[in-house]
Description:
The structure holds 2 protein chains of 2 kinds.
Chain A: H1 14-37, H2 40-64, H3 74-105, H4 108-113, H5 118-146, H6 156-183, H7 187-201, H8 213-220, H9 223-236, H10 245-276
Helix pairs in contact in A: 1-5, 2-3, 2-5, 3-5, 3-6, 3-7, 3-9, 5-6, 6-7, 6-9, 6-10, 9-10
Chain B: E1 2-3, E2 14-24, E3 35-46, E4 51-55, H1 62-69, E5 77-82, E6 85-86, H2 91-97, E7 98-101, H3 114-124, H4 129-142, H5 158-170, E8 176-180, H6 188-199, E9 206-211, H7 214-220, E10 223-228, E11 231-236, H8 238-243, E12 249-255, H9 263-271, E13 276-283, E14 289-295, H10 298-311, E15 316-322, H11 326-334
Parallel strand pairs in B: 1-11, 4-9, 4-10, 7-8, 8-9
Antiparallel strand pairs in B: 2-3, 2-5, 5-6, 10-11, 12-14, 12-15, 13-14
Helix pairs in contact in B: 3-4, 4-5, 5-6
Amino acid sequence: MSALALTSHRPSTILERWRANLRVATATARVSVLRYASNPIQLLRAPLSPVLQLAGFVIAYNISGQTAVPSEQVIGFLVIGIFMTEAWSATVWGSGHALQSERYLGTISAVIAAPASTAAVIIGYTLGSLLINLPSIITCTLVAFLAGATFTVASPLAALIALATVVICTFCIGLAFGGLFVLSKNSNSLSNFLQTPIYILAGFYVPRTVLPDWLQRISDLIPLSHAVDALRGALLQGKSLGDLSGPLLAALGTAAVFLVVGIWALGKADRAIRRSGTLDIL
Amino acid sequence: MRQTETSASPDAPIVADDLRRSFRKRSGWLRSGELVEAVRGISFAVPRGTIFGMLGPNGAGKTTTIKMLATLLVPTSGTARINGFDITRDELRVRQHLGVLFGGDRGLYNQLSGWENLRYFGSLYGMDDDAIKRRAGMLLERVNLTARASERVESYSRGMKQRLHIAKTLLHDPAVTILDEPTIGLDPAAAIEVRTLIASLVPEHTVLLTTHDMHEADVLCREIAIVDRGLIVAQGTPAALKLGAKVDRQVIITLAGALNGKQELVHQRLRALPTITQVRQELGDDGASSLTLRCSETTQTLDSALAALRELEAPVREIQVREPSLEDAFMTATGREFDPGGMEVRA
């Protein structure tokens, strides 16, 4: 085989490029899952932790005497919040922690020195984290059903589209923060720092309507806030696709902004890191 | 720079032209740090199908240079081309045509098997599953890891990890490979294995090897650039570099016994030989004389000296010939002794 037989092929059409990026993202996700699965303690912790979290929130809601969420919807409301937490964790923890781990292992130079798109690699981290979190989501949903959660789904299509919107928003936000994580020597700490405020801002555990006005304005800028509204509307209030068009469009619109900013920022971060020479510095 | 014979053309697979790279040392949040010039104008070209060595102590600028060639670091000034592609203007093409082995035993996913590592890195180079399987199978065989390919990398020895690194570097069959300190930290047996592998890469691949191991550079490289403090201070074939070293060649002859009155005669005869510049005699603990002959050339000196001693009936017990080494070449080029630890200025 000639030296160039494998190296000279370069995706030329948009379709080929998409296909190549998809392969990189799925391969990265696969590696993330395999690495995660190699740790038995994580495998045990992952499904238990959100169930305990859910139990804690349900108790807090029950003893608070709150009226913002109808009592028959509390468990459903919270389990969707847990699902959103797992999706959000997949975004920030996924890419932030993954990049820090690549630095720690010394693999980051080899990953970046490859011709693969850095954006595809970061999307792969997010996809991997989503897959890793899937058992947690399933366990939590089962427990919620057993605990008497009720869901009212009038339009399964609306529910599916809302769910897909959550996933799309997750990838777009992951990409938006990707540049920041590439630049940061402490992407792990940064991802931890970014993780918690969104629980409140995007209404994962409390309805956004109870937030002060100024916080609601900030919340409106976050795609996941609208996605969670749409998902709750589809799963708890039996809303149709038409009813959900507002939050769905808002979610996808803000996600598109995050996507564009993310791709731009990742390009800038890539150049900045190559100028500073700090890529592999822990 | 003292330049000896080179044979690379400007369209060689690796060409560096006046590469420079400075860093500002960080000294706090507000204070701007001191500017450090890690690479101060490095130029070289590597002929196709050969191994070119960059030899120098830590902090000499070797790793910074290869990071620039691998498109991981933007040069402050200067240019370089990998297989004809500019490292700053066509970085994607450079990455496709280049395989880089970064030094040390890191750089692999320890929780994954050797095979899974290769599979992932192959996908980052746009290879499909069939190509990865075919190529990885062949390379695992070549680096003698087929039997251990399904085991986690964390169970590998350092030498095995380094062999896997080599397989990873060659996976996409790059025309050009850069190996940064590939034998660092290996035990002698593992280092020999890795060197044998590196030697087998040519002429299929063009190899740039960085090392601070003089012996490694000597046995593997067709041409060597001695790098010190960000500059190439000497360049040429190992033989040419050694030939240019400004040190005396020495022939040390240990006699079977004392010279017993013939001392003056022996000295006279040896001093008269045209290649000898100095004769020094020492008496060993066992009473045997040892003659250290400083000379301009060793083969003829040895022949003539042995003939003279035979004639004078001075029986010889042991002969040592000391030719200049790459250490001597380094010393000639830099004016100081080679210290592999060097100074730490890392990119």
